[in-house]
Amino acid sequence: MGILNATDDSFSGDGVGNNIDKALRLTKGYIDAGVDIVDVGGESTRPKSIYEGVNEVTSDEELSKVIPIIDAIRSNFDVTISIDSRKSDVAEEAIKHGANIINDISMLSYDENMIDLLKKTDNPYILTHNKKINTGKVIDQVVNDINKTINNLEKEGIDRKRIVIDPGFGFNKSIEQNIELHNNFTSEKFNNFPILIGTSKKSFLGEISNNKDIDSRTEISIASALDLKNKGANIFRMHDAILFKKIISYLDLLQ
């Protein structure tokens, strides 16, 4: 999954803003490299506790950023698009314009209407763990919280086959908790649901590698993704998706 930030304030500094040509060039690069999904987002989700100047955007502002890009991608390429939004109205409009997957980092805690949207659509839904950790082992609480949410979704008539799990690296977790989660992760703990990993350039990787500069976190991000791939993760949301895809293809050749 290649990241396409339709923002000017992405923590990674790689947002395309409203530059359609730049968005299309990035998308073409992803497709040419064999990247499977383009993840389009119009709101920065960088933690307020770490980054200054983090402001929420309205649905209209978010739509004005993502819809022109989704339209342009859909008009030019046959590729799976995910909409990275915690707002149901943004996700719904994105689906109408050709997005295929809903990527919601809120764990259904931001917009009570998101469940209603899931009821009337059949799109895959990425369920991201995003709750404060207050028990002993991080992985145990993440698994328990995810399972409870899935059970609630099933009670609402949502087919579990639509669900992709994101263990939520970087969301409501301290640096130490992220590291513990990384060390103890295994897909078997999540009942072999499809697992999306979003560790790319996160601050805890900067701490591990002693790289405060976000641009210097490429290698540790790829190392993280490879480690989690070996532990059963399936989908990797990456800033450097082209490089990661090349490394995976080379590893496959060496098998």
Total beta-strand segments: 8
Estimate what percentage of residues fall within beta strands.
5-15%
The ordered string of helix (H) and strand (E) elements is: EHEHEHEHEHEHEHHEH
The low-pLDDT segments are none
Give the second-level CATH assignment, the architecture: Alpha-Beta Barrel
Mean pLDDT: 92
Question: How would you concisely characterize the structure shown here?
Answer:
The protein is α/β, with parallel strands linked by helices and 255 residues long. It has nine helices and eight strands. It has helices at residues 20-33, 59-76, 88-96, 114-120, 138-155, 175-184, 203-209, 218-230, 241-253, and strands at residues 2-5, 37-41, 80-84, 101-104, 125-128, 163-166, 196-197, 235-236.
Question: What would you say this structure looks like, in words?
Answer:
The chain has 255 residues and is an alpha/beta fold. The chain has a single domain, classed as TIM Barrel (Alpha-Beta Barrel). The protein contains 9 helices and 8 strands. It has helices at 20-33, 59-76, 88-96, 114-120, 138-155, 175-184, 203-209, 218-230, 241-253; strands spanning 2-5, 37-41, 80-84, 101-104, 125-128, 163-166, 196-197, 235-236. Strands 1-2-3-4-5-6 form a 6-stranded parallel sheet, covered by helices on one side. Strands 7-8 form a two-stranded parallel ribbon. Helix 1 packs across helix 2 and helix 2 (59-76) runs parallel beside helix 3 (88-96). The mean pLDDT is 92.
